[in-house]
Amino acid sequence: MTEQTATQARPTSSLAETARRYALFVLLALMLVGFWIAQPAFINSANLFSILQAVSVVAILGVGVSITMSAGGFDLSVGSVAASSVMAASYLMVVLQMNAIETMLLVLAMGALIGLANGLLIVRVGVPDLLATLATMFLLAGLQLIPTGGRSITAGMMLPDGTTALGAYDPAFLILGRARLFNTIPYPVIVMALVAVIAWFLMERTRWGRVFYAIGGNETAAHLAGAPTKAYRLWAYILSGTLASLGGLIVASRVGRGDVSAGNSLLLDAVAASLIGFAVLDKRRPHVLGTVLGAIFVGVLLNGLTMLNAPYYTQDFVKGVVLVGALALTFGLGKRKR
Amino acid sequence: MSLASPSPAKIAVSVSGIEKAFGPTRALAGADLVVEAGEIVALMGANGAGKSTLVKILSGSISADAGTITLGGKTVSFASPSEAQAAGIATVHQATDQAGAAGLTVAENLTLNELCGTGNFFVSGRSIRKRAQEIAAAIDLDLPLDRDFIDLRPAERQLIAIARAVAAKASVLILDEPTSSLSSTEAERLFAVLRRLKASGIAILYISHRTGDLAAIADRAVVLRGGRVVASFARPIDFSAAVAAMIGRTLDASAHDGKPSSAPILASVKRAVLVPGARPFDLDLRSGEVVAITGTLGSGKSRLLRALFGLETLVEGGFTIDGKPWLSTGPSYSIVRGVFMVAEDRWASSLLPPEIPGATIAGTIALPHLPRWFPSGILNTTRERLAATQAISRLGIKARGPDDTLDQLSGGNQQKVVLARWQAAPCRLLLLDEPFQGVDVGARADLIAAIRGSQSGSATLIATSDTEEALEVADRILVMRDHSLYEADGSHGSLAAAIGSVEAAETGNVTS
């Protein structure tokens, strides 16, 4: 009987279906045109690239979140991992006097290790995903303050033992966050694009991505079909942790110091981007393209509103409205007739 | 066979000319049925004959397309289950976890109707217990009133549902496959309660295809086939005629000759003990053989299959495959070596929700074979769609194409896809747990043909609680009872006799 209703309902629902598929693209285009008309400076390439630069960290973290979500998990620790990475990168260069390459590799390894710890806590110890990563989030938020006694890290700072830090940010490190390719495209945007393309390929075009989604859809079925579900879930958290520390590296190289308040809103923004992504192409599931588009969508909206002199304190409200709308679009209006 | 027409005064419920279609499938095509007060009528029928549709109409879950229901002399129609309940038709469903609310005690569950509906706003533990005792006494129910519903056995849950029905002053009680999960002593207890209710004038419609149960309790048997009543038998019920009417042909046990196979032994079970204290048993599976294990729910059929697949371990004993010891460490180990299992309940065990990539027919078939089909890791959708297209035509799967998601298919077609998944790679041993669950008769025939048609060099072991299914599909049938295997009388004289011998083994009279 389901076959029957599906075939009968198709012609009538196809228009609504198309509308839902492209709803976010259309809204994004409308927004761009609207802001352009209201404020012609909005559309120049410098501003558009600054929007992309602003959302790059959120998008990279969001990709990590959506990989864990696709495997049936949820990584709440990405914001803390990114913040810890900012502190760790600063500490490695300013206090331990390491160079840019060493710093980046060590920080990425730290992110992967935190992801592994999350994964082991979930897969081996059996703590539910949300609780395990929530605990890690608190743990890291506190841990990152301990080496410097709760102070931000800058060149020449006083260390807890009374000596002065001798190192400084490696100028090569700052290229990542501050330089532009051909003097137009900021490097964070290029990193975001690379992460997005690689992650998209992994999740949509390889058998590994297929298994990630299968585990999220029905872990028992994936297990009975021979998939090593625990290893996959572990890898999802390792990828998410590594991507979060990559995001942290970009933040560190942009601000050029270890700021204790860095990455405060990153978690919620990244999760929101992933959830808004559910509505993109009417997929009703976490996916990489949707997450990146979700991040850009929010970035464009906030940038445009700021240009129209909307006060900064309305930003969270605006993000909330977009998120509610996108989720309603995904789950409510789009309910499939059964 | 001729039946004195019941006097109108005694008729508790009657249905006439009931029709119901689901899309192109006519589930009921003019069914007529009468149940008198104080009578137990057995409703028999193969899977897909329309039994559950008729029950759903009587209990108000769905409405009929045509026909009338008369209850106590008045024509009625129900828009919802609660309306049917209010009118006096109580239904005890097969799924006993819905018979009450977990987290509440037996006493609270017994008085649930009053707590939720018409009773006082204020309740005290004492008033609930007092009322619960009255309700329990009405059917001689002897359960600790403080026990949590979740700790009850299925049989006890059923009795609670029956007690609630009686307390709600039901005039008609419908029992849907009540003994499918009960042991024989529990079934006896249920029968005693039913006889008592019968004596008090309640009309009982008893759905089952277990002839043993029906012989013990039914006054009359009505057989449904193809959505209409094809036969009615008064006591003493001629069960071989009833079974023949149910299946629609006097089958001398399907196409399989029942001759013992002389092919080489492919897999064997040696001195296996499934749970501590169970009797050890042996089993040999020969190449090309289809062997079915029947037995009640919880008798250990699934456990044996799961142990072979590497999901559980035996207490004692072991397996061999191709003469070598077989001890699987889990699904991936088994699958690589050609031992496949289809677990019961396909939505829980095999299928993905429709929004997930890979929830299509092609993706469902490919899932366990991804590492072998795509060693580089990069998917080639042409490859998996080709396998799906072949499966669709070979098994006669009704779908628009390989990209249809599974929720768009009927139960039978879903099961065909699941079977096709495991026939898409070379197989040594195929384990099927309840492969015909929720599958209509037509699709079952296709599935059986597919299972029997792919038997070169592999063996198939099927667990099913339905004896007829076992007889239709298998070369050899064994009965699992209390976690041990017993031989049923292997000679396929006639289907009815074979069913009788299997069910005799099930109820414990192995001497016959």
Automatic annotation (TrEMBL), chain A:
It is found in: Cell membrane. Keywords: Cell membrane, Membrane, Sugar transport, Transmembrane, Transmembrane helix, Transport. It is a multi-pass membrane protein. It holds the Pfam family BPD_transp_2. The chain crosses the membrane at residues 21-42, 48-69, 76-98, 104-123, 130-150, 185-203, 234-256, 262-281, 288-305, 317-334. Signal peptide: none annotated. Coiled coil: none annotated. It comes from the Bacteria. Its main location: membrane. InterPro entries: ABC_transp_permease (IPR001851). This is Simple sugar transport system permease protein. The lineage of its organism: Bacteria, Pseudomonadati, Pseudomonadota, Alphaproteobacteria, Hyphomicrobiales.
Automatic annotation (TrEMBL), chain B:
PANTHER family: CARBOHYDRATE TRANSPORT ATP-BINDING PROTEIN MG119-RELATED, D-ALLOSE IMPORT ATP-BINDING PROTEIN ALSA-RELATED. It comes from the Bacteria. This is Simple sugar transport system ATP-binding protein. InterPro entries: AAA+_ATPase, ABC_carbohydrate_import_ATPase, ABC_transporter-like_ATP-bd, P-loop_NTPase. One of its GO terms (molecular function) is ATP binding. Keywords: ATP-binding, Cell membrane, Membrane, Nucleotide-binding, Sugar transport, Translocase, Transport. The keyword Transport applies. Residues 13-251, 263-507 form the ABC transporter domain. The lineage of its organism: Bacteria, Pseudomonadati, Pseudomonadota, Alphaproteobacteria, Hyphomicrobiales. CDD domains: ABC_Carb_Monos_I. The keyword Phosphoprotein does not apply. Gene3D superfamilies: P-loop containing nucleotide triphosphate hydrolases.
